[in-house]
Design brief:
Number of helices: 3
CATH class of the largest domain: Mainly Beta
Structural class: mainly beta
Shape: rod-shaped
Order of helices and strands: HEEEEEEEEEEEEEEEEEHEH
């Protein structure tokens, strides 16, 4: 009797292991679980610049019967969630679902800030039979605020009317409307005037760090523009196109530019003869002479003299 009992005690654990390892026989006949799938960029999910993100998760049913679950979402940053609220999963199956978060104001949140999205599923029925046990599964993942690069160039506050033959300058203010520290990167300038040279003032605040507008003291950066107007420049309007890149975006190889156009008026100088300006919105140059028109008396006197000379030639003996 004892040898048989000893043999059974030795074989029983091995039989249990073999039975548990057989395919199609679940280790837990009532088992199920919920898991959030990692994002393609890592474990966390990053919101888009529009404040949206889609998160994937799956529910696995390792039991012998189908189940029905109710799904709830706890969204971060006051986001709205759009995902399934109730689903059925067959026995031995798993189903993948998505929930989309929208409506996050990323500009009002600091770049890199993270908060958790919680997804919870509660078992409602098994094989059509309601379950009142409150059996629930949940998982969480961090949702992260992206970096938004947005510099803005304010309109100049001075009258942009300059004389030809002068070197003059004016300033533009640059502010940071993104959600992380930034400064001026590259500056590109183009104009549509023939005798105008433009450069960036070396005294510009190109190295000044600008805080986001959400900061109590965001500050501004001065961008100085120097104009060298030739003395031969005709009177006309000139459009100056200025492009400024975000230094922060440049360091991340996602170059973000802001553009503005400043119109100046060049006055004085020598007007060009018979020249019309084809630039859009620019006035046509009209040339004028400074010679006074002859008076009526001088016209009458000239006519009489001409008539007298003609008569003498005709009747001279």
């Amino acid at each position: 009797m004892r040898p048989r009992l000893l043999t059974f005690l030795l074989i029983a654990p091995l039989l249990a292991t073999i039975i548990g390892a057989q395919p199609g026989i679940p280790s837990d006949p009532f088992g199920w679980d919920l898991t959030i799938i990692e994002s393609s960029n890592g474990s966390d999910y990053d919101l888009s610049s529009e404040g949206e993100v889609t998160v994937e998760f799956f529910i696995e049913n390792t039991g012998l019967t189908d189940i029905q679950v109710a799904i709830d979402y706890e969204s971060p940053f006051n986001a709205s969630s759009d995902g399934p609220s109730q689903e059925s999963i067959g026995a031995g199956e798993n189903e993948t679902f998505t929930v989309k978060l929208t409506g996050v104001d990323v500009i009002s949140n600091t770049a890199g800030l993270a908060a958790s999205l919680k997804i919870e599923a509660t078992l409602e029925s098994r094989a059509g039979t309601p379950i009142g046990s409150g059996d629930a599964r949940s998982d969480e993942v961090d949702i992260r605020i992206p970096r938004i690069y947005l510099l803005m160039v304010e309109d100049p506050t001075v009258a942009l009317e300059f004389n030809s033959g002068t070197i003059i300058d004016f300033d533009l203010e640059v502010t940071n409307h993104g959600n992380s520290d930034d400064r001026i990167g590259d500056v590109e300038i183009e104009d549509d005037c023939p005798l105008l040279s433009i450069s960036v003032d070396e005294g510009s605040d190109l190295e000044k760090v600008l805080k986001p507008q959400m900061d109590q003291n965001p500050g501004t950066a001065k961008l100085g523009i120097i104009l060298d107007i030739s003395a031969a420049h005709p009177p006309r309007a000139c459009d100056i196109d200025i492009r400024i890149s975000s230094h922060g975006s440049k360091s991340e190889n996602t170059l973000v530019w802001v553009e503005t156009t400043v119109r100046i008026e060049v006055v004085g100088g020598e007007p060009s003869e018979d020249v019309e300006d084809d630039s859009p919105n620019d006035p046509t140059i009209v040339t004028k002479t400074n010679v006074p028109a002859p008076g009526v008396f001088y016209l009458l006197l000239s006519s009489l003299l001409a008539f007298g000379v003609a008569s003498n030639r005709k009747y001279k003996p």
